[in-house]
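Can't attach files on this board, so I'm pasting raw text. These are the components:
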Amino acid sequence: MPELGRKGFGLLSILGVLLLWELVCRAGLVNLSLLPSPSQIAPALWKILASGSFLVPLGQTLGMLLIGYTIACVAGVALGLLMGCSEYLYGLLEPLVEVIRPIPKPALIPAMVVFLGIGAGMKITMVALAALFPVLINTLQGVRGVDPVLLATARTLGCSRFETIRKIILPASLPMILTGMRVSLSMGLVLVILAEMLAAESGIGFLILDLQRSFQVRPMYAWIAILAAVGLVLNILFEMVEDRAVPWRAK
Amino acid sequence: MFSMRNLSRVLLTAAFAALATAASAQTVRVNYIPITDVTPLFVAIDKGYFKDEGLTIVPTPSTGGAAGVPGLMAGAFDVMYGNVVSTMLAQQQGFKLEVVSAGTKQFDNPANTNGMVARKGEGIRTGKDLEGKTVAVNTRNGIIWLFARAWIAKSGGDATKVTFKEVPFPQMPDALRGKQIDAAFMVNPFFNASVTDPNTFEFVAAPYREVQPDVEVGHYISTQEYFAKNKETLAKYNRAFRKGVQWYNANLKDPDLIRIISGFTKMQPELVAKLNLQILPEIVNLDSVATTVKLMKDNGLVTSDIDLAAMTAPDALK
Amino acid sequence: MSIAASLTSGELTVKSPVRRKLFGDLARTRLSGAILIALLLLLWEVSAARGWIVSDNWPRFSAVLVAAYRGLLSGELAEILGSTLYRMLAGYAAGCILGVLFGLVLGSNRVLDWIIRPLIEIQRTLPSPAIIPPLILFLGVDDTLKIFIIMLAVFPPVFVNTYGGVRGLDETLLLTAKTFGLSRFDTLRKIVLPATLPAMTAGMRIALSLALIMAVIGEMISGASGVGNYLMSMQYAMRADSMYAAVICLAASGYILNRVFLRLERAALHWHHSMQAE
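---
Top answer:
Structure tokens for the assembled complex are below.
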């Protein structure tokens, strides 16, 4: 019952906002060429959805995001584990991490273009770089937070180093790692859209900016709606994975 | 009775006039792109021409891609420098704009300030050579894109067989060097830096001039609403701005001009000194704009007719 | 004792004591890391100086240092950084306040939660750069726009963490408060706020770097001032050395902000722990 109530209220409130928006537009309170009403955007949205023309840009943006994000997650966890487990590597890499981490990654786009050009490689690297650090830092913190008693036990039991990492360190730091991955996901989404806006000829970010530049306001809002849906779905998917991976943390 | 009506009319007019003067701001916020084309604006500020007319100019630069006409519509600024293509696109989509003064025109001039650039030794000379290749433009559906296409067609190529890639101007030389593109339509200072590097790049053509001699690339525009409410302010603006154009055209080699350009573009004075500055127009030529609109139509950018005379301030034409 | 130490000490027994001492010192002082950074910077310098990488966007590192020195001396860089940091902090503060406020209210009021949270879910998953183009239509291109988008980016992590903190509160604590007849305000002040503080500050820490990124992004897309605009205009002026100088200063500010935050957080949580110990 509460679940039903929750969903009902949620739907109602979204409809309420749309209705309010519609009324504000109908009452002539805003310039319709700047902010069209939902009933004007809906046909544009339908046209994009029904014609299937959303598939290619959506695929490009998601593909770029997923490749970059996967690289970031794998590299972040690996580096975090290595730095957490080896004092040498920690000493070697920690200063570099601390130097690169605070640079807002969009500022690196010009340098990236010099080395990687303007194609997909540059955008994937941007996404990966931005998504890397939350995963890396959280993995490191997770590893460092593992109960030393557990590790001593593992040693006594004669666990190999690899086994210790796989059976003790990784599971124990998983909640932290997942928290990092969640931050990274939204970071990656921001960066992929931005990279498409600053230097691209395809993808959702490019389309939104391009439509704004050619003053096709209604399809622009339609694409923003599609992007919102994508963000929401990605988030829900992530939560499902998280609930599976760390069931003890489920609400 | 008759006189009463007259009196009330006079009073009303006076009241409206008073309101209008109060409403017509003496501050004009001008949005610009930091390129040499907008130099007259800064000459007029620097030389006090606006001040002489009692105007204060607040210039705001826009380097990113998202400001421009939307900012104008939102009232973030009153006047902006914009290229003809985006002005016409906005007009067609129902944003009511007014051309208030002339901006940039590609006069016949032996020195180029922009053009198509390719890698040295690859033999790209015409649009035909670019078929199957990739050409960089700053924005698709923009004026650079339009003239790149038109030039390809004019020099015997098929623009539909050419891939256009959006590359920001500063990244064009890198992309060309990295062979991700085969040619780029560049503007200064990148055009100049590239063509003065003859070991790497070579000049191919000047699309603007070859497609449409004396093409008007950019204008200063405002919204029709602002124009209607601030005719007097804009008249003053125009007078002062035109003085800026005249000073600029008469002093192209003046060191003072280099100082002014370096000031708002942030380019080092040595770099500015290397650029071939072009003279700029004082008035808008509607026939020239009409030719460009026709070109937009041919390339599918506009579909309906645009009444150019109705959207151009009379002051800008004479 | 960190796990790093406990793991490595187990393995080091097989190595010679001299090597262990040498490497151990290197690791502890992070000297090896500093050397690595120096080598990378040297590589940068040489790659540009020897023409391994030819590009107007790849100046020598020494030129960047000179540009940074000049920029700092003339006050240009300080002014630019100042305008970015001012907007960033304004947006950050607004986002944090709203995040905490909504987190507390929605965490404790079920009906409001049902009504408002779906809207927040949509807002927080929408990547902020996407809404800059339409926002320009309403907020113009000035400070209002930039502060607003920073606020939008800061809000979600602060809200989610505060909300989670309130939801995770021990029911018995709240019941006890009720039994003792604590007013709503007192319950909030004495029980809810202290208990959710760690979660709140964790959200604010994530939001801090987001705020700086969004400040720069906003200025890059619709620039008139600040570091983001400076980065763009330096590219258009072919002054890559000044651009990298600004990036370095930006990174330094980000680093310092993070450090200051950690200090403040530790102080706040220290107070929090001592409160709980009472």
